[in-house]
Amino acid sequence: MFLQDKQFPLLHLFENSEWLSQLAYLSDIFSRLNDLNLGLQGLSITVFDVNDKINAMVKKLQLFEMKIKAGDVSAFPTLESFISENKLTLDDSVRDNIVAHIDSLRQQFATTIQYQQKSTTG
């Protein structure tokens, strides 16, 4: 394998199902963030559109967090595929890391909304 031939120092991570599960999750969440980013661009986008899209993302993140806490990974297709193809279950530490990350994202978006609302009203 290429990475073995080059003696890649992080090769062992590609054999670690917990690390690969988190990588699959990150792939999914970055895809969703990219979709949001694209939706916030354009000449016809208003501050109200931005506010609505960010509010929708906050609500989605709340839903994702509830699902992950319950062990449901269906909101994350790459993670779901990785887990099912490898006949794995969602490890507790991976679940906790995902929940913490989603919660952090949700808080950051909520802060953005509060700042934006103060800017438009004040």
What this model shows, in words?
The chain has 122 residues and is mainly alpha-helical. It has one domain. It contains 5 helices and no strands. It has helices at residues 2-5, 17-39, 47-69, 77-85, 92-121. It comes from Oopsacas minuta. This is Zinc finger BED domain-containing protein 5-like.
Properties at a glance:
122 residues; mainly alpha; 0% strand
Condensed summary:
Helix content is 73%, strand content 0%. With 122 residues, the protein is mostly helical. The chain has one domain.
Query: Quaternary state, please?
Result: single chain
What's the order of the H and E elements?
Answer: HHHHH
Rg (CA only): 18 Å
Strand content: under 5%
Output mean pLDDT: 88
What composes the largest sheet?
none
**What class, by secondary structure content?**
mainly alpha
Q: How many β strands by DSSP? A: 0
Shape: elongated
Measured between the Cα atoms of the first and last residue, the distance is: 59 Å
Total number of domains: 1
Bin the helical content: over 70%
Number of helices: 5
Show unreliable segments: none
